[in-house]
Design the sequence.
């Protein structure tokens, strides 16, 4: 996706809320996987992980 990371998280939140209506396992795992994948590239999240290691 060619959007800034801040807006990408907003898109993931919208996708999560939309697909939460249909709680199919495969759908939610896909959304959560994409979110966690992008979260691992966030600098603030990496700093958080380093602080708690």
Sequence:
């Amino acid at each position: 996706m060619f959007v800034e990371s801040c807006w990408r998280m907003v898109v993931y939140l919208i996708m999560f809320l939309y697909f939460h209506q249909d709680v199919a396992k495969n759908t939610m795992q896909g959304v959560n996987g994409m979110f966690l994948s992008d979260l691992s590239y966030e600098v603030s999240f990496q700093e958080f992980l380093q602080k708690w290691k």
User: Anything to note?
Assistant: Residues 23-53 form one domain. The chain has a mean pLDDT of 80.
